[in-house]
Amino acid sequence: MTTKDAEEPVGIDLPKSLKATRLGAVAHLRLARSEKRNALDDVTVLGLETFFTRLPKDVRAIVLTGEGAHFSAGLDLSEVAEQHDPLEGVLHSRMWHRAFEAIQFGRAPVIAALHGAVVGGGLELAAATHIRIAERSTYYGLPEGQRGIFLGGGGSVRIARLIGVARVQDMMLTGRTLNADEGHLAGVTQYLVEDGKGLEKAMELAAKAASNTPTTNFAVLHALPRIFESDPASGLLTESLMAAIAEMSPEAQQRLKDFLEKRAAKVVRQS
Questions:
Q1: Is 182 exposed, middle or buried, given 0-12, 13-18 or 19+ CB atoms closer than 10 A?
Q2: Mean pLDDT, to the nearest integer, of 99-104?
Q3: Which of 271, 156, 158 is nearest to 225 (CA)?
Q4: Who contacts 116 (Cβ-Cβ below 8 Å, separation ≥6)?
Q5: Are 69 and 116 in contact (CB under 8 A)?
Q6: What pLDDT is stored for residue 250 in this prediction?
Q7: Cβ–Cβ under 8 Å, residues 22 and 10
Q8: Is 124 annotated as catalytic?
Q9: Which of 70, 118, 133, 261 is the most exposed, fewest CB within 10 Å of its CB?
Q10: Is residue 247 annotated as part of the catalytic site, yes or no?
Q11: For residue range 10-55, what is the model confidence (pLDDT) as tens digits?
């Protein structure tokens, strides 16, 4: 699934800082501002919102990568350097929230392949995806503390839940960076691969996710995180409702029948 000859355009009007192609049911979205280390300006963030809210119905998984030497060096500081109105700052942050919520709670799972700098807003963007793969070159930072600003793209919620409030405080107060191994042990990523292998791994995982039923993927993306945030009684009720909906879909019924009649593979240990 990495043969460029098979890639087709997705058909969504995007800014030049984003490039999107697809291989069957898997879309590949690239941050394409390598001359700026894929820093996220407003045009790019709004383009992300456009992509994830207009995704074709037959796209069932997305791989997100960055062109050049880095995934993303974060917020393009020129976007906020001249802001003097607090309300303007609030609305700017909320625009980022809206775009990243379209990723986290979108139609299809998003797998991010990380390399180089994953810093500030770049880490906030990665935290909004569902599966994160780091190449060995990856490093993480939250330099907002040294810039005189604060997290504005959802990082105080998403990153803190991934690696803990104390670690986020350390990174912001002292400028500490985490390398790929440290970030993996802290919980930023689910997979760690050698340099140059991130896209291949991401496409492999995206193909697996795309093969699930849309109803199950919807439950995993939308119901599971909300169940986690609920009180136990509400969470269990939501789980029951979602389980009933998922197992009644025609595709699920066929898959269950295939398994019972020994036409589907069993779960086996993987190396």
A1: middle
A2: 98
A3: 158
A4: 37, 66, 68, 69, 70, 71, 137, 138, 139
A5: yes
A6: 76
A7: yes
A8: yes
A9: 261
A10: no
A11: 999 999 999 999 999 999 999 999 999 999 999 999 999 999 999 9
> Which residue in the list 82, 88, 124, 135 is annotated as catalytic?
124
Domains of the chain: 4-210 (3.90.226.10), 214-260 (1.10.12.10)
Tokens 């995206």 correspond to: 206
CA distances from 262 to 207, 213, 251, 254, 256 (A): 23, 19, 16, 12, 10
Catalytic residue among 35, 88, 144, 251: 144
| Residue that the structure tokens 């029948």 belong to | 257
- Tokens 């050049």 — which residue? 68
CB contact set of 87 (below 8 Å; sequence gap of 6+): none
Biggest CA-to-CA distance, the chain: 66
